[in-house]
## 1
Amino acid sequence: QVHLVESGGGLVQPGESLRLSCVASGFRISDYGMMWYRQAPGKEREFVASIRPTALVRNYADSVKGRFTISRDNTKNTLYLQMNNLKPEDTAVYSCMRPAGDYWGQGTQVTVSS
């Protein structure tokens, strides 16, 4: 069974950093492309970042480019999202997902506020 479990969210001030983790089970993340999405209150879910199986190709939403980095540790079967210089508009529930099969985690809340 495929499972994705996110962690690492929290309340931070503008300019601070967080690293989100997504532990996968039931498959090897090295074999699949993976993505991060987020959904802010009252807004539609939006794409944040993606990584190809080779990890050589990564894509980012324009709103996070230069501040967020997607990566993975195949030995831990874990996907990461390093978020630097956080802004209030980054406040959302962040979810990891595997496009193949449309598997989603439960999400982790990130709140950026002074």
## 2
Amino acid sequence: QVRLVESGGGLVQPGGSLRLSCEASGFAFSNYLMNWYRQAPGKEREWIARIFREPSLTYYQDSVRGRFTISRDNAKNTLYLQMNSLKVEDTAKYFCNAPGENAWGQGTQVTVSS
């Protein structure tokens, strides 16, 4: 059974940092491209970052480029999102996605507020 479980969300002040994790199971994680998405209240889910099988190959949405870093540890079947210089507008529920398996996690809430 394919499963993605996000963790690491929470409440942080503007300018702060968080690291999200996504533990994958039930499929050959190292063989798959992975994405992070987010969804703010009242808005559509949006793609923010992608990492290919080759961990050095990554892409970002313009609004997070230079602040967020996507990475993966294939030995641990885990995807990460390091988020620095957080802004109020980064408040959202964050989801990991394995498009090759059409799989989504349940999401983890990130709230940026003073």
## 3
Amino acid sequence: VHFVESGGGLVQTGGSLRLSCLASGFTFTDYVISWYREIPTGEREMVARVGKTNSSTRYSDSAKERFTISRDNTKNTAYLQMNSLKPEDTAIYYCNILGRDESWGQGTQVTVSS
């Protein structure tokens, strides 16, 4: 199981970013995929998750109405579109199979300046 996250960067408050998560080593369509973020204190929280066929999504309270998760099963890739970014969104963002706590990728850093 392997994940490669990309698309992070430095943006100003109110800006947007689109993160990508390329998965390999397993049957992508068999699993719910989640995006997580790790804040500077080391705490990790789930931001959003997407069902196996894009038909079901769920978001944390902080991500609702600003972030959109999706997946392209033909490319083994999940996405996280982030709009109206706030400084508190600053974190390292990771993707993984829902409920799995291993085989984490390197993550992608998102920094939102005020």
## 4
Amino acid sequence: EVQLVESGGGLVQPGGSLTLSCAASGFTFSSTVMMWVRQAPGKGLEWVSTIYSGAGSTYYADSVKGRFTISRDNAKNTLYLQMKNLKPEDTAVYYCQYSTTRGQGTQVTVAS
């Protein structure tokens, strides 16, 4: 059974940083494309970032480019999203995603 468990969210002030983690199980994590998506209050899902297997090429939405970094630790079956210079508009529930499966999400709130 595929399982994705996100953690690391919280309340942070504008300009602050957070690192999200996603523990994966039930599939061959090291050979899988993984992504982060988010859903802000009252809005639809928004793609944030993708990381490929192998060389680990990464891609980012324009809204987070230069501020967020996606990475993976295949030995730990864990996906990360390092977020810096957070803005109020980054407030959302963040989900890691494999194929069409998402975890339960972790809330990120950016407010003073």
